[in-house]
Amino acid sequence: xxxxxxxxxxxxxxxxxxxxxxxxxxxxxxxxxxxxxxxxxxxxxxxxxxxxxxxxxxxxxxxxxxxxxxxxxxxxxxxxxxxxxxxxxxxxxxxxxxxxxxxxxxxxxxxxxxxxxxxxxxxxxxxxxxxxxxxxxxxxxxxxxxxxxxxxxxxxxxxxxxxxxxxxxxxxxxxxxxxxxxxxxxxxxxxxxxxxxxxxxxxxxxxxxxxxxxxxxxxxxxxxxxxxxxx
Length: 231
Prior knowledge:
Layout: E1 5-7, H1 18-32, H2 52-55, H3 59-75, E2 78-80, E3 93-99, H4 113-126, E4 132-138, E5 142-149, H5 152-160, H6 173-184, E6 192-198, H7 209-218, E7 221-227
Helix pairs in contact: 1-3, 4-5, 6-7
């Protein structure tokens, strides 16, 4: 059971030596105690049954010593190693770029385009295992909602927090793509993918979508565009 246990601070265990000393002190102190009343003979008390309190008089001290021992062991930080396995898995880096402009509140999808897109993204994230995924949102400007991560629970929580109005309204598709490229350009993954979800055409921003797409190509980033809405 304890064959694989190690201690981060083994030297702390030397403090356990104080416990035998405390036990000896307790025993010695008990022998030194004198009765409040002296009797010439105690034979008359031989048949008097001991009360539960008398039988358990040493229990508090025993519990204190046990607690002290456990505390010392805990401070030594015991660590257990049962088995280890190295798993090498090749994943891809994905940057999801989501349009949150006011038009994404259109209700041709229920309850609206933005919530429908978020649901699709959430389902997509749940289907990944080894891929790093980042999340970029944009309207008139763009910013990173979540950098590349494999902590999908955090990513999904940040996704659920997205709503329109977080940024000034507009549709700066080029800016969104450029921000997504920034998340991926320094990646050493063999495959880098940018997924763009939008319902409109570019009408704002400093970077036009064509230029942004050309920049993505220079970094080996593939762009997949998903149109959100019915036409």
